[in-house]
Specification:
Elements: H1 13-28, E1 33-37, E2 52-63, E3 74-86, H2 95-106, E4 118-128, E5 131-144
Parallel strand pairs: 1-2
Antiparallel strand pairs: 2-3, 3-5, 4-5
Length: 163
């Protein structure tokens, strides 16, 4: 009988923060707006029948230098992109109302230990075939703690066995 071992990896901090953002936005943005993680193939994403959709993905981090050789922890600012797809600009289902809902839902909040959230910018990226595409950039500070490696102790020698 063969036993297979399976390694279960915990969710990364990126996934944890993204999941927390999704939860808060689903609860606080109008029901006219579908909130989801970015699909694997964004070009094929279709929000047919809905006035709006909000898609979220991680865009990267900025790291501050460590504060010395003994303190290897660095300040990290995780950045997420919230892409709002809408069919109109004004009114209840329009971009302007959704942009305010999004800002009010996340500004100043913490998500899975990262935060408080600071909005970096929002801007219109394009209008194509009646769909307006906005991008909201959010920055979330969190410490980046280095893995603790145990250095070899001085005067440590490899053990040899004698017959």
């Amino acid at each position: 009988m063969e036993t297979s071992l399976r390694t279960v990896r915990l969710s990364s901090i990126i996934e944890q923060v993204e999941d927390a953002l999704l939860t808060v936005l689903k609860e606080n943005v109008s029901g006219q707006c579908k909130v989801d993680a970015f699909p694997n193939n964004p070009a094929l994403y279709d929000f047919d029948g809905l006035p709006a959709a909000l898609l979220i993905h991680y865009t990267g981090s900025r790291f501050a230098p460590a504060k010395g050789p003994a303190n290897t922890t660095q300040a990290r600012a995780m950045e997420f992109s919230l892409v709002l797809l809408v069919r109109s600009l004004r009114g209840e289902g329009g971009a302007y109302a959704h942009l305010d809902d999004i800002r009010l839902a996340i500004q100043g909040r913490s998500f899975a230990g990262a935060g408080p959230a600071a909005l970096a910018r929002d801007q219109l990226n394009e209008e194509k075939d009646g769909v307006w595409r906005w991008e909201i950039r959010v920055s979330l500070p969190i410490p980046a703690v280095a893995r603790n490696y145990q250095p070899p102790a001085p005067l440590m020698r490899p053990g040899f066995s004698t017959p």
